[in-house]
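tool=predict chain=A
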Amino acid sequence: MRYELYYWPQIQGRGEYVRLALEEAGASYLDVARRRGGDETLIALMESRRVRHPPFAPPFLKAGRLMIAQTANILQYLGPRHGLAPKNQPGALWVHQLQLTIADLVEEVHQTHHPIASALYYEDQRKEAKRYSREFWKRRPQKYLGYFERVIDRAGGAWLTGRRLSYADLSLFQVVEGLRYAFPNAMRRLESTIPHVIAVRDAVAARPRIAAYLASPRRIAFNEDGIFRRYNELDS
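tool=predict ok
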């Protein structure tokens, strides 16, 4: 099957978690909005009356006749089909639970630069962003990444589920990369306390298909339009 991924072409955003899974799986996919006229195709599909189950927002994935939206939902579909999640119900639910926890963290990261409203520019909420980021770094990354540290430790292997890589490991890699980009100083102080998490990040980066993807033009660079944004004043 050749998948069609629909996400904004200028940013990694929430679509990147899907891209990482597709790349690791060696799946054939078209990143639709990165082609000429792709933005218009994406918007037209969202607004089309012919789509029975319309997505609220990107990312969404076309898989045959299926249209699947929401990052964790897409990954829950892809995981068992490409060896990135167990096929048994308890294992599949566990990986999905880990992904939803990652989604909670990503939302809190987004609020470090947009604590009031997504519709406002960063410059319109700078003071509030600085305060939010200061409070965020007092406890939230420590709580989330500390949780994943314990999960890996108890799993009895190199990955979140033990001996096998899952899509949640790929997503954890992306979170670490994003935090390193957005908050390099704060992450340097934190990383010594989460060695298992950093080991997962390093192991994902070393996987052949992921390494090839990261070195290719298919990987969009971090920038100040995405979820992870670098503002020096927020990285105290």
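The chain has two domains: 2-81, 89-234. The longest helix spans residues 126-155.
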